[in-house]
Write a structure and sequence with these properties.
single chain, 68 residues, alpha+beta, Rhinovirus 14, subunit 4, 3-stranded mixed β-sheet, 2 helices
Length: 68
């Protein structure tokens, strides 16, 4: 490896998720703030969340019903 061209590596970087989960990983930043982790992601938890903003799901379903 060439010297003085690689970023500093933090072997115990602190990762904080919006759900409150905190864990350590190796990274080039000392702290990381994330929105979704394996503790709160629907794929890993098995709990599906439908995030409906301003009736978008209903609008989609009504358009789909009109086509049929």
């Amino acid at each position: 490896m060439k010297k003085n061209i690689h970023p500093q590596y933090f072997p115990k970087a602190k990762v904080t998720c919006s759900c409150g989960n905190v864990f350590a990983i190796g990274a080039t930043k000392e702290t990381l703030d994330i929105e979704v982790c394996s503790s709160c992601h629907p794929f890993y938890t098995g709990k599906e969340k439908i995030m409906d903003k301003v009736g978008r799901v209903q609008k989609f379903r009504s358009r789909l019903a009109k086509k049929k």
